[in-house]
Structure formats: structure tokens, C-alpha cells
Design goal:
By secondary structure, this protein is α+β, with helices and mostly antiparallel strands. Helix content is about 40%, strand content about 20%. The protein has one domain (about 5-85): Glutaredoxin (3-Layer(aba) Sandwich). Helix 1 (about 15-25) runs parallel beside helix 3 (about 65-75). The radius of gyration is 12 Å and the shape is globular.
């Protein structure tokens, strides 16, 4: 599977839902907790083209959006191909 990165904060329900879906898909992911790190949050926002809410999800370096976007990709049948090598 392609590498997945997810920017999160511990108390974010959407972050937990996104991680749950990725885990169900068998996708390993690197999690970046931005809750106490303003510099990391700025990195996330730069990579996400201004996206300031968590989660922000990247598959193989490409920004796919947040939790709702991830679930929409799955419903459309487009998430599995994005994750596949």
C-alpha cells in the first residue's frame, strides 16, 4: 500500500473515524499530532493548501482532504485504488 500521513489531535472524533477507516482498509499510516505543536500545524496547513482543521490526510504525498473526503472517496469506490500500490 502507498504511504499515508494523517495530521490529528487526540480529542478529534473525525480523526478517530478516519484512522478507523484506514485501519479497516489495512492501510498503515503515520500520524502527526498537531495539538501542541504550532510549527507542525503550520506545516500541515501549508501542505493542505490552507486546510486548518484536523484531520488532514495525505496518500502517497497527495492531499485528499479530511475525514468526510476520505469517506466520500470510499463510497465512490476510489479509496482502494488510491491506497493500492
Amino acid at each position: 500500500m502507498k504511504p499515508v500521513e494523517i495530521y490529528t489531535s487526540p480529542s478529534c472524533g473525525y480523526c478517530h473515524a478516519a484512522k478507523r477507516l484506514l485501519t479497516q482498509k489495512g492501510a498503515a499510516f503515520t500520524e502527526h499530532d498537531v495539538s501542541g505543536d504550532p510549527a507542525l500545524r503550520r506545516v500541515m496547513m501549508d501542505r493542505a493548501h490552507g486546510g486548518h482543521t484536523v484531520p488532514q490526510i495525505f496518500i502517497d504525498g497527495t492531499h485528499v482532504g479530511g475525514c468526510d473526503d476520505l469517506y466520500a472517496l470510499d463510497r465512490a469506490g476510489r479509496l482502494d485504488p488510491l491506497l493500492a500500490d
